Amino acid sequence: MKILITGGTGLIGSRLVELLGSDHHINILTRSPRSSKDNVHYYKWDPKSKTMDDKSLDGVDAIINLAGAGIADKRWTSERKKVILDSRVDSAMTLAHYLKDRSDRPKVYIGASAVGFYGDRGENRLTENDGPGEGFLSEVTVTWEDAHKLVTAAIDRSMILRIGIVLSTQGGALKEILKPTALGAYGYFGNGQAYYSCVHIDDICGMMIAALNDDNYNGVYNGSAPEPLTNKELVKAVKKGKSGIGIVIPVPVLALKIAMGEMTEMLTNSTRVIPQKLIDENYAFKYTDAAIAVKDLLDRQL
Asked: Measured on CA atoms in the order 204, 193, 260, 271, is the torsion positive or negative?
């Protein structure tokens, strides 16, 4: 296949390109010039000004849109919130604009969203049939998914993937959890009872690859492992996967709020998401046990 990827140099995108390997021709949209190599070619775009090199779309069979400013990269000031939201909407609007008048449209579109869509829902088990919650993360994902509709209107089949907490040693939550473990501390947040919907990075990439190859994948999917863990259970799983020695201790929510402000909701929201549609499609999860997932990631430094 010939695949166009936005966000192809980010955490998920980089691993996805590796897993796709040399069997596919891959075009990556980037704001910074890069040298093309082998089957991977880079094209310039600027979502803010809604411009892109339209040659990147020539003969493309599929688009995977992972573009968006990092949710946890900086404190949520009003300006940063605007960047987070605009970066997601602008990427979809740019693609939609350039697809509008083309006759050689891709056959499938895969767009990223997030389990933050559901907000803070306590112990409720949430499937794709449940509506959005409240708070900034929910507001962003609702608007993000609406923006994806601009693209899906021009393409026959689509998967919108509400991605959970991606486990990787190269970035994201796991990398942060691992930082204090060298000192023998494994910290969970508050009372540790907030549910986290996690997913091994190879599984989230595997879901996208499955959707590329199987026409049955269509619509909105929760992208997480089958059984969510509480925050405390996840930290214990990290300790087990690392074969670590140390203590599991709480990090007070007040300390989080002083350090992070409104961003604290990322760590304290309880979002117990079930990937029901993936289960129904018989998607073959590689990693359903968090401790095994962590050990694998540490062993391979993924």
From this structure: positive
pTM for this model (two decimals): 0.95
In terms of residue numbers, what domain contains 46? 2-300
Asked if residue 279 lies in contact with residue 145, where contact means CB atoms within 8 angstroms, the answer is no
Contact assessment for residue 126 and residue 229, using Cβ atoms and an 8 Å cutoff: no
DSSP three-state, residue 44: strand
Cβ neighbours around 73 below 10 Å, total: 9
CA torsion angle 75 81 85 87 (round to 10): -60
pLDDT digits (tens, 9 = 90+) for 120-178: 999 999 999 999 999 999 999 999 999 999 999 999 999 999 999 999 999 888 888 88
DSSP for 126-188?
A: E-TTS---SSHHHHHHHHHHHHHHHHHTTSSEEEEEEE-EEE-TTSHHHHHHHGGGGGTEEEE
Q: Which helix (H) or strand (E) holds 82?
A: helix 78-99
CATH of the domain at 286: 3.40.50.720
Rounded to 10 degrees, the C-alpha dihedral 214/283/138/8 comes to -60
The domain tally of the chain equals 1
